[in-house]
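Task card 7
Instruction: Convert sequence to structure tokens.
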Amino acid sequence: MDTCGNRPWPDLAAVQAVKLLDHFGHAGDVFFRLRSYLPLLLLPAFVLSAGAGATTGPTWQAVCEAAGFLLSLAGFGIRVITIGSAPPGTSERSTRDPRASLLNTSGAYSVVRHPLYLGNTLVALGLAVFTATWYLPVIVALAGLLYHERICVREEVFLEAKFGDAFRSWAGAVPALLPALSRYRPSSGRFQWRKVVAREFHALFVLGAGFLFLDVLRGLFATGQPAARPIWTALFAVTGLLFLVLSALKKWTSLLRVSESAPGPTGA
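Output:
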């Protein structure tokens, strides 16, 4: 090893890796706090792509609509499974910093470390495919990878600091975003539909509004009239009605109230 006096030269590769990790962590902090709003930066790309997709043939549009809807539905389904099967004290919601009272390694977390972000990516990809362009899904996939990669780094630094060897053992065996289905281990708790309904009716409404918005845009570019087809209008109407009803129930009643506190030692 080269030395300067009695001191070894610093390992430049290690120093650069630490600086890069610090940069990812800082970016992850920013992205984590703004994660509900940053995807809106892609809105102009969706608008332009809806215009380009309006010039494609009706058969191709129908294929892309079906594929996009199924892809988004799969992403939403992953979110439902993840949230409904997560034990109390895990997958906790926060708008400022990562939080977790327990390390969840079962259910969806036994096959992928970040199932919620995988679900979000599939939802966004489905909306991109709906536009019937080839390049928007590529843009969304790359943007989602960069965006979620930095948030994942921030969350995993937090989890490693809190859970130590248990986290390292789990993270070493379970991939970050590409599921390893052969590793599936069922969750120990019962599925909580009330928790799913309380947390996901907003996302369901966004999904319905997103498909209607893209369909209206495509009609506007194609004919100059903001028309929408009945199937997407009906989807928006159903999800919108659910949103209004469940918002009222959540605000004025305790029907959707779910405890997020972790169990004590005897219940763990």
